[in-house]
Design goal:
This protein has eight helices and seven strands. The chain is an alpha/beta fold and about 230 residues long. The protein has a seven-stranded mixed β-sheet with strand order 3-2-1-4-5-7-6, with helices on both faces.
């Protein structure tokens, strides 16, 4: 090997040694991100996945705004905040709280809401759906898209959603269809999850998007009014 290549190799080894802790931290964070949202960074998810899904968010925003034209809405696993911003525009009477386990997603979502001039009505917080940093009975409705299959404890997630809903509130949990992404819980397993939750039952609907492709499912949960 020539002296030039020895020099380059030594410089690379030295850099790797000097920055190994930083490199390890970066790799750990990137693999946690892949577990939580499929890609190594929130920016990459926002640019590569969420952009493509704008039409799906428009579909979901229409359904959610029709069910909850006003009141207090919670979005769980709010990611980069694209759905939240759409919802707030579609339902001007709505106040929205987004909760996401990822700091980077929460920062991105808050920037998006501020850029849209919606910070007064739309706020974001870091939190795990299995232990929501929110009070009992705060929300008229809950929505979530493509997040449930990432939750490490979906049973606790549904119990928490039940806890923070008002007595007559309802939740719409959208996820990928089982045929499209097998780690998603799929139609049957979503129904079983709902039956074992404090909701006692849930309806599972197929959502056709794009066009008539049955690529998504929606679990509809209703909290029973107090007797
Ligand atoms: C695939 S992304 C979906 C983001 C956004 N809802 C969308 O439709 O583009 C999944 C999101 O769920 C969040 N997430 C994963 N596990 C979570 C948990 N246990 N509690 C709250 N958020 C979670 C991730 O950080 C990520 O932002």
């Amino acid at each position: 090997m020539s002296r030039k290549w020895w020099f380059i190799l030594t410089a690379m080894l030295l850099t790797a040694t000097l920055y190994r802790n930083r490199l390890r931290a970066y790799l750990e964070q990137a693999s946690a991100n892949v577990r939580d949202f499929d890609l190594p960074s929130a920016g990459a998810y926002d640019a590569l996945v969420a952009t493509v899904l704008e039409g799906f968010y428009a579909h979901v925003a229409g359904e959610v705004a029709a069910a909850h034209p006003g009141g207090n809405l919670l979005e769980v696993g709010s990611g980069p905040g694209r759905l939240a911003v759409r919802l707030a525009r579609e339902a001007p009477g709505m106040t929205l709280t987004g909760v996401d386990i990822s700091n980077a997603m929460v920062e991105r979502a808050a920037r998006r809401a501020a850029g849209a001039g919606l910070s007064e009505r739309v706020r974001f917080e870091v939190g795990d759906v299995a232990a929501l940093p929110l009070s009992d009975g705060e929300f008229d409705g809950v929505v979530s898209t493509l997040s449930l299959h990432h939750w490490s404890d979906p049973a606790s997630g549904l119990a928490e959603i039940h806890r923070v809903l008002k007595p007559d509130g309802g939740a719409r949990i959208y996820d990928l269809a089982h045929w499209l992404w097998w780690p998603a819980r799929g139609e049957d397993r979503l129904g079983q999850l709902a039956a074992a939750s404090p909701f006692g039952e849930g309806e599972v609907e197929v959502v056709r998007w794009p066009a008539s492709v049955p690529a998504f499912v929606m679990l509809l949960l209703r909290r029973q009014p107090l007797p």
